[in-house]
Structure formats: structure tokens, C-alpha cells
Amino acid sequence: MTNELYRPQFHFSPQQNWMNDPNGLVYFHGEYHLFYQYHPHGTTWGPMHWGHAISKDLVHWEHAPIALEPDEHGQIFSGSAVVDWHDTTGFFNGEAGLVAIFTHHDQEPDSDRPRERQSLAYSSDFGRTWTTYSGNPVLTDSRFPDFRDPKVFWHTETNQWVMILASGQTVSIYHSANLKDWSFASQFGDGEGAHFGVWECPDLFKLPLDGDSARTKWVMLISIGNSPEYREGSRTQYFIGDFDGAVFKNDASPEKVRWLDGGRDNYAGVSWSDIPAKDGRRIYIGWMSNWKYAQVTPTESWRSAMTIPRSLGLISRKDQIIVVQQPVHELNQLKSGIYKWDETIIDPGQNLLSVLDLPYFELEAEFELQTAVEFGFKVRASDISETVVGYEVEKQEIFVDRSYSGEVSFHSDFSGRHAVKVETLDRRLKLHILVDTSSIEVFAGEGEAVITDLIFPGEKDQGLEIYALQGSVKLISLNISPLKSIWT
Ligand code: FRU
Questions:
Q1: What confidence tens digit (pLDDT) does each residue in 376-397 have?
Q2: Which of 17, 360, 392, 473 could be a cystine partner for 372, CB 3.0 to 4.6 Å?
Q3: pTM above the 0.85 mark?
């Protein structure tokens, strides 16, 4: 498994066959559970199951047997999982246990019209085996053919379960005392944000502002499906506002659109439930692909990987509040050695990194602007290919250019350059970059600008370059660490 071309070495991927969205993210008894949309009989999308993997550190994953498979109510689409600490469901004889809340997808009887209904499954053995609830489905609404991807959480302030799920191009919010009986609370989204495609995989959670737990805001994530008119394909937007347990109020004006990621390959991401309060993080993971071309990416025995798990935060900048993302610190354990530079002027035409050859690694750099109009790195480079990560000073944009990143011919919308704005602070810019065998993730500044992109370089394209164009840039510091594979 570890030697296959393009097999991610520090990102989660299924042993074989097709994967899409992360599902049922929950932490319980020292274990992080990652379920995922899984087609066990092929490398393209097919009848959906929940695949399963377990980790003690968010970095190393143990593959577990399939958790949920299609039954008399249909396929198992996306959803979430929670710890039912006080046995509100009555499934656990007064103990705590895991409950999965997911969408059953089938067809209306005697028609082709899709039908999507919400159902439960529960586990009394720490997620090892699952029983579907005999009262399924627990929530239906035949007005919406697209009615799916329930994300459930305990709302402490009002002492009840809250479900947010996608309903056409809106989200609907429901309440429950026991996860079985649900009552409608509100709907959000009409005329708000982007409506380029169907709304999917929502999430809703509270985050401290600038690390101050006395000042909090609610963040709503909404993934938007691929539509043929938009080259960007499927992507995720977010809203910041307030939530009183029933109604979400968007702080921004309705037409404002904010994207979580400036790259193409971060979709359907949601956050872990039940991270202990003493940890306090909101940990997120996304599906590292795009419905535009996900089914034709050039891998063989498996298809798709997840992003690196990321810790989310909120920072204020001028009059804006921005969601920031950083790789979880647990990734540090994979570092094997370090190459370091500091206080170095980078001029055009020289390459400080010509001695390095690395297939997968982590890079952290801080630059100070001088006269260069553009600067950055080329990774997975050779005479014939390169992936460029750069900063264009005048436009104040970081970008990833994967036009010559290796195999790009499998889809006409794959090749290209993706940019996102990020301002320097005191003329300084930090870049935190993760390169794996078939992906690149760039976190700029405090993580307020992120680009996640797949790349498919040749096995031998392992060169690295640091560059400056039409002038110099000052490297304040640069640390590059080869990483250990998580599979060995
Ligand atoms: C998002 C999605 C979800 C759905 C699942 C089906 O990628 O379309 O809305 O539940 O994938 O696999």
C-alpha cells in the first residue's frame, strides 16, 4: 500500500476503492473516529457505505471494518456522530455511547425522485459495531429532494440536541431531547451567500474570537456542490454570526461570500464532536478532492484522501472576522530532522535549496518584503515539472500554480493557478506548507488564507527551489522537515 504512485504518506486515504466526505467525526475514550463516504466495490462513486478509521493522535490511522451499509431504507449518505453522555436515547442502559445521525438515500416509491431521510445507528462498544435504530427514519420532509447531511451537537445553553442539515439551497435547524423526535426550529440561507450549486454538509459551532473565550462567535460551514458553469467545482463557504439555539443570524450582509479555502480540493469538511473541554480545539477535516474531477484522478487501487486535520480559530483583522486554519500540532511527531536557514537575502537566479530532494515534507517560512515583485517556492520540481507556491506583492495574493505539476491531462479543469488574498503584517509574511505525494496545502499568515490542491507529480520529481523575481526578498527564517510516513 505504501509504495503505490501518488499514495499519500501522511494524509488519510482508504486502503482501496472510493472515498468521499468525512462522516461521523467524534472523539470518545481517547480515540478519534473518522467515518467516511465509501464505495467498497469500486474506485468511483457507488452505493454508499460508511468506511471507518480510528486514531489516537489524528495522524496515525487504523483502518476499521465498514461501519454502516445500505439497508431497506437505502444508501448511507453523510452525517455526524455524537457521544450520548446521559443516554438521552435510552440505547445504552444509562451509560454513555455513540450515536450516528445520517441520511438514508433512496427513491420515492414508484418514482425516480430521490428521497432523503434522517436515521440513527448506535454503538455500545466504542464504535466497533453499529446497530441501526428500529424506528428509522427519524426525520423526513418530502418537500425537499435534497435533504441531507445532518450535523448534530449538544447546545449547552438551551440544553438540547441541535441538528443542522442541508435542505435544497438552504439549511434547516431542528431540536430534540432524545435524538429520535425532532422539531423544526428555523431555516437559513435564502438569499444569503453563494448559491452556485446544491448546499451540502453544513456544520455550526462556536469559536473564541482572538483566542478570548469570553468573546465568541458562531461559524456556519456550507459546502456547495459542483455545477457545470463554474470552473471552481465544489467548494465550501462560511458565515459568521450568532446562534441562540434556534436561529442563526449572519453578521455580514447577505450578498457577502466567504470561501474557506482558496484551492480546489477541500470539500465537505466538518468538525469533530466531543473534543474534551480541556483540549478546547475545534478540529476540522475535509475531503481533499473536487466533484469536478474526483472520479477521474489518476490513482489506481483507491481514490481520494482527506486534508490534514486542522485546528480552526477566529481572528479579527481591521473590521473583519476571519476563520483561520492551522494543521494540528500532532503532526510535529512526524518530523524527521530539519533543514534550517535564517536571515538570508534571496536574489533572482539563485536557488538555496538545490541540495534538497524531498517527496513529502513540511516547510515553514517567514519572509520580509524587499524589492521582489514575486517570491516563493517550487516543490516537486524537475526539468519537466513543478508546483509553484508564490506571493505576488502588488496583488497581495498567495497562489498555487499546478499547471506543470505533473499529470494534469485527466480533466480539462484540473490544470491552473489558484490565488487568494493575504495581507502582510509589518511587511512580513508567514507560509506553512505541507507537501505530500499527491497534494499541497498552504497556510499563509495566521492561517487566514489557505490553498489546498491535489497534484500528481512524477515519482522522481522531488526538487525544491526558493525564488525571487525582479528584485530580492529577505528570508527571516526557513525550516524544512522531511516527514515520516504514517503507514510504516
Ligand atoms: C457531498 C455529498 C453529500 C452526500 C454525499 C453522498 O459530497 O454529495 O451531500 O451526503 O456526498 O456520497
A1: 999 999 999 999 999 999 999 9
A2: 473
A3: yes
- Neighbour-count burial for 187-203, b at 16+ CB within 10 Å, e otherwise: ebbeebbbbbbbbbbbb
**137 prior amide bond cis, ω within 30:** yes
* pLDDT (average), residues 266-289: 98
Across 422-462, the runs of DSSP E, i.e. the strands, are 428-436, 439-444, 449-454
Domain at 335-482, CATH from 1.10.275.10, 3.30.428.10, 3.40.50.2000, 2.60.120.560: 2.60.120.560
β-strand pairing of 282-287 with 310-317: antiparallel
Q: Which tens digits make up the pLDDT trace of 176-192?
A: 999 999 999 999 999 99
> Is 190 noted as a catalytic residue in this protein?
no
H or E stretch including 469?
strand 463-469
C-alpha cell at 438: 499527491
Q: 200 C-alpha to center of ligand 1: Å?
A: 7
Q: Which amino acid is at 373?
A: V
- Rounded to whole angstroms, the Cα distance separating 154 from 159 reads 7
Report in angstroms the alpha-carbon separations of 199 from 170, 223, 245. 6, 6, 21
Alpha-carbon 226 to chain mean position: 16
Asked if 58 contacts 328 with a C-beta cutoff of 8 angstroms, the reply is yes
Q: Which CATH class is domain 17-329?
A: mainly beta
Atom 9 in ligand 1: residue holding the nearest Cα: 200
d(CA 435, CA 482): 10
Sign of CA dihedral 125, 71, 103, 300: positive
Domain ranges, ordered by start, for the chain = 17-329, 335-482
Rounded Cα–Cα distance for residues 93 and 88 (Å): 10
d(CA 455, CA 389): 12
**Number of helices and strands in the chain (H, E):** 0, 32
Distances from the Cα of 170 to the Cαs of 191, 251, 328, in angstroms? 9, 17, 31
Assess contact for 99 and 120: CB atoms under 8 A.
yes
CA of 422 to the centre of ligand 1 (A): 31
